[in-house]
Amino acid sequence: MTKAQRIAAAWANLPAPELTDQVRLLVKARDASSRGVWSAVRENPVIAARVRGALAGLKAEYRGHRDEAMWLVWIAQVQQQLAVQAAAPAPVADASADEVTPDDGPTAEEWAAQHETAPRPPSDAPPVLFQEPLPSMK
The whole model's pTM is what? Predict the structure, then answer.
């Protein structure tokens, strides 16, 4: 078990405030060892979900802070590292050329049928009428 995997395993048992502190330190470090920890966290969906929650808390914590832009960039980088595996394409099963048909997506009629919206109910709010201001009399 590598050091990164031990850190990720230890995070599974930490309370939320302590986990947030640990995540904050690692987000700020931005070194090779922290990238290893993020890859180890990515392998465990439960720990990854807890870390994503801690990252969301950090975003909220640094909102309005003088270093907000810097922290948002760092947090976004970590979120990308956690999402790398989920974005990997699924393996495609072998199929003969006769079975493969191009899928251009739904036609306009199919799309309209899928996204048809219900009519809006009448509103109790009165309609708003905008008028041009009267010319001033000087």
Answer: 0.60
